[in-house]
Amino acid sequence: MQDLFSKFMENAVRFEQDSRTIRVKYKLCVDKMDGIELHTVMEAMDVAGILDYSLAKAADLIIKHAITPAVSYGSPAMFAEDVNQGSEGISETVLKILPSQDCKIVDVDGDAIYARVIQVIKFIFKHICFENGSWIRSFGRLTWPRISDIIISKFLSKVVPEDASKLVDFQKIVKCTSEFEFSLKEMMFISASDGKDYRLSSFSENVEVHFAFRKKTEILGKARNSLLQCDFSLPQDYTSKGPLLKNDGMAINSSNQVDLIFSSERCVVSKAASQLMELVHQTLQDVCLSSARVALEFYHAVRDAILLYEAVIPVKLERQLDGINQVAILMYNDCLFLSQEILGLAFEYRTDFPDSIKEHAVFADMAPRFHLMAEEILQRQIRIVIFNLREAIDGADGFQNTHQMQQFESAKFSMDQAVFILEKVHIIWEPLLRPSTYKRSMCMVLESVFSRITKDILLLDDLAAEETLQLQRLIHMMLDNLSSLLKSLISAFDSNAKSEEDTSRPIDDLIPSLRKIRKLGELLDMPLKSITSAWESGELMSCGFTILELKDFIRAIFADSTLRKECIWRIENVSLY
Questions:
Q1: What is the structure's pLDDT at 494?
Q2: Helix (H), strand (E) at residue 51
Q3: Does the structure show a pLDDT above 80 at 456?
Q4: 437 in Cβ contact with 378 (< 8 Å)
Q5: Which H or E run contains 53?
């Protein structure tokens, strides 16, 4: 039965593509049953309780070919009705769908759009439902959820104000939307009592929320685009010898250099971070001027925008973080900058927030995660540098047999590689990092290098005279090649004199193995008695040598003799205070 009535309705309501016409026939013919009245079919379907099922295809057809064009914002369709009168009365009616005469129509007030929709629904009410309230209500239940979605997506959502000052003008849309739904209620197309049917009024009356949602989407879109487009590059002349280190604080690209709120120092951040915080500050200024509902959406937009950095940048830059480059350092600075900026937001804006969100607006909870991310990035970079340095030093094969030319050249190449890595790090780190962070990180790296080289040399167990001189030469060459790097650390100490760290300590105290490797260079051609005296005076212990290291070193350099035994005895029995 359902299939039969569906065939009747398909025969009754048709869309002709060529003429863009919806045609409703009143005399139907299906399966050799001819002359069946459409009104009779509607009555039968109603009695059988299958009206909704049988009207489904007709509803789809009308929504697709009439309602959707009627609501098209900017280029709407127009409609014309025609009735074909035969000798036995009306044989059919048609609804012609005509293109708009003016392609530039913009129905900002909504009156014309709603009038076209009403025209289509009146056509259904009169010519398909025969002005029967029960039947049009059934048709409404079937189509209104989709029609209202189309009106919201193609019209109402597109005219939500882009500026808070234009919210008042939107009241015209609210008024005509309410009148439109009242007309549908009078035709019984929508329910008079079911609040769910008043979706358009609900949307338009809550325009503040929709305005805020749109702005929130725009804010997050801007933040995401900024983060994705930033390539973390710096000007080519942005080097350790550039203006960044001048005492007056001027920089080549001052827009990349920022003050840290809770520090006396400055650092260089990426364009992504600086633009993100500009967007955050602009939005929070809007929060202070907005209504409670809009302010709440903006507040959440700010939090989400900040957290986008954590979601986007680490994934985008994952490969670069595995190498020694400026990207990792800029990202470290970004996270440090964001963590401090986040902590300052509440102090800067909370007093001007609407009262309803003052107690709920929290930013401090996000700061620790960025601070932690910063430290993880920096420590990862330090580990990568140290790993590369260890690989370079491994090529020296423990500095064995350096009196042989081939072994000496191999050891020298390894030392040169280590120096090259250190200079690369120096060039990248010094202009970008805060002086205190640069000092702390570089001292950590140098400590690992010097301690490793010192340890390898002290483990040698039999050294020829020529070998000691070559080892001494290698140490001196390395320290000479690192002189500019070591001077940069002294500059960092001076520029950071007001920091909480103790900058008055000599560089040797901050890199303990530096004093030790320098002294090792001296010991390699020092007489045995002088070595013994240096231990007895406490000088060697202050340089970090242990009694076991010194005894093994003496045995490796000096042949067994009464003097060597005496000196070792003196070393073992000296009292050091």
A1: 58
A2: helix 51-62
A3: yes
A4: yes
A5: helix 51-62
